[in-house]
Amino acid sequence: MKAVFSGSFDPITRGHVDIVTRARNLVDEVIVGVAVNTAKNGIFSMDERVSLVRDAVKDIPQVSVHLVDGLLVDFCRAHGADVIVRGLRFGGDFDYELQMAHLNKEMSGIETILLPAGREFGTISSSMIRSAASYGGDVSAFVTPTVTEALRRKFGSGVLGGEPGRDE
């Protein structure tokens, strides 16, 4: 079975990586789809996001990363995906994701698996990471070292905690 886990990943967080890892334990292959979200103001280009996501999931077997350009259900069909995986943090996520799951099922027949976020990173979002990093907050516990470095480059050298290049 092949699953697609999509998002804007601006930036990818350890919570996202946790969902990818757990989804991979349920299915044979996971495709991470890096999608454009016109409702969000991103800091990383699509190429940067794809690169950061690839780095974050490089050690998880049978996981690939691709750009989603268009409808998610069309992307799923094009990649032979059987299911869509979505992570849930709060009740509001459930309400939204349930609506999307019904729409996607009606449009394509593709089922959606909803995975609750893990306890450790369940309250963290990419927008929170962007905001904290923009004010010099140490977000290194919530993102990979490569993302920490990318944020450091975006917001200025030395504004984030941790050591540059330190592998955690």
From TrEMBL:
Matches recorded under HAMAP family: PPAT_bact (MF_00151)
A Pfam family matched in the record: CTP_transf_like
Give the metabolic or biological pathway: Cofactor biosynthesis; coenzyme A biosynthesis; CoA from (R)-pantothenate: step 4/5
Does Cytoplasm appear among the keywords? yes
* EC class: transferase
| Catalytic activity line of the entry | (R)-4'-phosphopantetheine + ATP + H(+) = 3'-dephospho-CoA + diphosphate
Q: Which CDD domains match?
A: PPAT
* Role according to the record: Reversibly transfers an adenylyl group from ATP to 4'-phosphopantetheine, yielding dephospho-CoA (dPCoA) and pyrophosphate.
Transition state stabilizer (site feature) positions = 16
Q: Which Gene3D superfamilies match?
A: HUPs (3.40.50.620)
Subunit info here reads:
Homohexamer.
One GO cellular component term noted in the UniProt record for this chain: cytoplasm
**Native species of this protein?**
Cutibacterium granulosum DSM 20700
| Sample GO molecular function, one term | pantetheine-phosphate adenylyltransferase activity
The record lists ATP as bound by 8-9, 16, 87-89, 97, 121-127
- The EC number on file is 2.7.7.3
Protein's name in the database? Phosphopantetheine adenylyltransferase
Q: Which cofactor does it need?
A: Mg(2+)
